[in-house]
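Hey,
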Amino acid sequence: MDLKELVQMSNRYGANPEYVLAGGGNTSVKEGETLYVKCSGTQLGNITEQGFVAMDRKMLGSLMEKEYPSGDQAREAAFLADVMEARTDADKTKRPSVEALLHNLFPQKYVLHIHPAMINGLTCSVGGQEKAAALLGEEVLWIPICRPGYTLGKLCWDAMKAYREKTGKEIQVVLLQNHGIFVAGDTVEEIDCLFAGVWNTLEKAVERRPDLSPCEETAKAVETARLLAEKTGKTVGFVDAREGMRFTEAWGAWAPLEKPFTPDHIVYCGPFPLVLKRSEDVKEELEAFTGRTGLVPKVVLVEGTGAFVMGENKGDCGKAEMLLRDAMKVAVYAENFGGPLSMTEDLTEFIIHWEAESYRKKQ
């Protein structure tokens, strides 16, 4: 199949940082009983035809009727094996996106799934479901927060079936709480129109917007970065954004950033930041953080000083900063829709240990 239109749509949305960051998001197209979906670990902004994997739609559809183990690890391992078995691509090294099953649930030809900060300001807000219904109406389906993989697929399958039975129509726009948006259409132009409708509606509802313009790196920030690098051996960067200063201006101001909003924030920023008072000993607090969590923090928020990112190299720092800025944007946008709402602790713990996200991170 000629995937030219799919590639063009993917590149266009993927190249816009308002819509897609790093390896986030995925797209697909259907031809008969074959689904072509983005491979895990690829990037929409520069994806080519080789970045998609062909899958058997009937085999994927049959998974919704199958019984899986109740335990998280056993269920996801069995589900992954079945998804991989549904590949019809000649290149068996390709691994489909973790959301391949959701793409298959839509009967429409094209599907776009992305995580824009403004839209996630709604999906990651208190009372987001009610706000979505008031702003976007019944043409948009809301899916409450749940475990990804098979569990999310089954929840969407049931919800989409109920919508079909109630309205006699197929849903085309789905909002996933603390995750993002799915848009489906029989043409790329239809997807563009539907997405623009959601985007423009939310944009009109936003009164306060995030301010990520540069701010001054003070002498205290320079010294803090030096200490963090010295104590950890990591590359450290200061986040020169005004929202970064606002979220650290006083003790507790960073509350919206203490827990992740979406799986992408966990993958690139770590599940939790290290928060420090001005007077606290950096070395002691780093050791205490690692002792509590078993992790080295990727994000450090220092009272009255600013936000910092840490990684093995500049590339790691760049991705962490990119997603930290995104988290700041989500937090600010969420203020317009009822206030920020983080992922639940049990779901955060699931994502930390989920094999699918570990694989994507390695790619």
